[in-house]
């Protein structure tokens, strides 16, 4: 198989279009030969995959809630599947970079996304700067239907065999302004998604009562509303993607359903001082601490609710993956003062997997964010590529699936990059959009 791919690359210098067609045909032939056909293909390799990402989720803060019985859906996943502490990138990176490594199985120098802003600081980074193929692009090119909702660095959307709701859907603006144009694909999805968007201004104190003490909030009026302003847009964004996912999903419609929630990271950055105020010399009122001291644990319980809802409507045969990009340890003191931004992140996030041919009750000793993408490929019956930096998490698989994967590996191809969209859409510059995003990133301590 490999010589055919290498030969195709040599032809690229002569005829780019013939090269792409030849390489695609060769890759498809290798994929289907590796996956087998008919009775040789394990039935579970055809079962759908569901990936749910929770930015910043950390076992340090989940475990006490599991013990207290306050995160039942996480507990159920852990009991019926695999659990691991998921190693983030080293050295530490920002969320867009890590989630791009999760999607591509590659390190930043290969996929091209270095952070929130371009390396030359000339504006925000977008999907146009990504130089590696994602699993949804690869599987989509192989005919597998995809849904991608809320993922970092998906604006402008690249061509996808299915549906893509980009992270820009939840960029909010003062006044009655709609979502960013071109934030979803196909275009016919724009109006349905726009109707599902939750405005921060629509979030009431009664809705925030699940997170904070609203009695204290009412007693302090506008001062409390200012403190809770960020919580409103954070919650509204997660609720938007929650509603969009529920609307878009239908049994049998997608082979891989990918859903990302950012809120846990945002509330951790914004409200950590109220959760762990001891030793911090930050300007905080006692009533603010009392109002918000349970906000972060309560948000973890909301995250459990989000997971439970997804598990409730997806096909019960689904192989489910739950992960985060890093953990969160909060403020740390240094010679330069308190840590901010990625200085508040810890090296290990979370990973859970469950479903057909996934082992149960297993604690995986070694797993990294780069390993998720090649694992998704083999769960789809597709051999990995040799240019990936991640490895298959073979230990999570039942023995019969492991044996089948061993045969699949003999058909590994050199690269799937010929399947990646080469004409990536250019992001339409909108000063209001860029200003709003930069303000959010500065508030979270991610940029200066």
Report on this model:
This protein has 448 residues and is an alpha/beta fold. 41% of the residues lie in helices and 11% in strands. It is built from 18 helices and 13 strands. Strand 9 and strand 10 form a beta hairpin. The longest helix has 20 residues. It is globular.
Count the helices. How many? 18
Q: Main sheet, how many strands, which sense, barrel?
A: 9 strands, mixed
What portion of the residues fall into strands of 2 or more residues?
Answer: 5-15%
Q: What is the rounded distance between the termini? A: 49 Å
The structural class is alpha/beta
- Uncertain residue ranges: 1-22, 33-39, 173-177
How much is the average pLDDT?
Answer: 85
Label the overall shape: globular
Query: For the CA atoms, what is the radius of gyration?
Result: 22 Å
Main-sheet strand order equals 5-4-3-6-1-7-12-2-13
Helix content percent band: 40-55%
Number of DSSP strand runs: 13
Brief summary:
The chain is of the alpha/beta class and 448 residues long. 41% of the residues lie in helices and 11% in strands.
What secondary-structure arrangement, pairings included, does this model have?
Layout: H1 2-11, H2 16-35, E1 49-54, H3 59-67, H4 72-80, E2 82-87, H5 95-104, H6 108-111, H7 135-141, E3 146-149, E4 162-165, E5 184-185, H8 190-196, H9 205-208, H10 214-219, H11 221-227, H12 229-248, E6 256-261, H13 263-275, H14 286-292, H15 295-313, E7 319-323, E8 327-328, E9 333-334, E10 337-338, E11 345-346, E12 348-354, E13 362-364, H16 372-379, H17 399-409, H18 431-443
Parallel strand pairs: 1-6, 1-7, 2-13, 3-4, 3-6
Antiparallel strand pairs: 2-12, 4-5, 7-12, 8-11, 9-10
Helix pairs in contact: 1-2, 12-13, 13-14, 13-15
